[in-house]
Amino acid sequence: MSRQTQAIIHADALLQNFKTLAYTAKQSQSMAVIKADAYGHGAVNVARILQHVSSRFAVAIMEEAVALREAGITAPIVVLEGAHQAKECEMAWQYNCILVMHCTEQLQWMQKCEAHKRPHIWLKVDSGMHRLGFPLEHIAQIVEQHQVLITKETTLVTHFASADDPDNDFTQTQMSAFKKSVASLSMPVSLANSPASVNWPSTQAQWNRLGIGIYGGKVTTAEPSESPDSAHLPHLLPAMTLRSSIIALRDIPANESVGYGQTWRATKPSKIATVAIGYADGYPRHCPNGTPVLIRGQRASLVGRVSMDMITIDVTHINNVSVGDVVELWGENISISEVAQHAGTIDYELMTRISSRVPRIVRYQ
Ligand SMILES: Cc1ncc(COP(=O)(O)O)c(C=O)c1O
């Protein structure tokens, strides 16, 4: 039997999540962010599934846009890091992409590009994240000096540092500073990613850039039970189920250890299942003892270190457990956020790290 390690991609969840988020931002247009192979879900898969609801897509770099074009995706593509070299300006025109330019060097490349081969550009503004973008105080001057590059399409973009935290008013600070510095420009703007769109609806503008939310990842640090405002939180479905199967079972006596470094020791006679997934597949090596999985409808715990190709699970409490049983690592029953918390990371990293060794299988219902 072939190895049963797969990432099931739920097309209906992607569609529903996109529609849910876009519906809560009716005054805006929403585009799906499908950089980093659509956060590990397969960019071509996701673009094909969402192309009738997302009128544009966003990626990080030109190579990602070219791969989508070669797969037949026709919607305009926004390239969030803009051009990494001068020749990408003409490439962007050729491939119907919009470059988000963040520095003067990129604008100089654009000016050298033949006028009829210039792509549309957006301009990135640094409103406080201090990662990319023109300083707030320079943006009006940049626009004035580069009128030859500005079209009706040219949108001013900024990105928030803490939009997932509804209690951190830095989002409000960034938004106010941004709005003040671009007020005189009357150009379209794009502010919200999925956490901002959900937690700070006032950030919804001409274009929202939706990433983690469409994949069903966590968009807020607010706990539904803790937040009186949580009624507004959208119900998002996991778009990926990572699963594998049991390839071996053994009974061990009390006091025996399991795995590299002997980091777990049985306190009583135990049944240990070996599952065909490891850190080479993208299952995090940092997952500690106690990280949950689902087998036969029951939660069970990771025991011992994650190896390159395998993990070990304590299945002592599961009746009739057998070689071949399906194991859910995350998905409909085990939330990816819970696993991320155990691994000391975030949903984004877990999704994007699933390696090419794991086939993505698209399910339509
Ligand atoms: C500039 C930019 N916009 C939008 C997004 C999408 O953000 P999210 O996945 O949090 O919705 C990202 C993701 O990192 C980004 O870098």
Give structural notes.
The chain is 25% helix and 22% strand. Helix 5 (87-94) links the parallel strand 4 and strand 5. The protein has 365 residues and is of the alpha/beta class. The longest helix has 13 residues, at 11-23. The protein folds into two domains: 11-228, Alanine racemase (TIM Barrel); 240-363, Lyase, Ornithine Decarboxylase, Chain A, domain 1 (Beta Barrel). The radius of gyration is 23 Å and the shape is elongated. The mean pLDDT is 96. The strands form three sheets. Strands 2, 3, 4, 5, 6, 7, 8, 9 and 10 form a nine-stranded parallel sheet that branches. A six-stranded antiparallel β-barrel has the order 11-14-17-16-15-18. The chain has a two-stranded antiparallel ribbon with strand order 12-13. The chain binds pyridoxal-5'-phosphate (PLP). Pyridoxal-5'-phosphate (PLP) binds at residues 33, 80, 159, 193-195, 209-213.
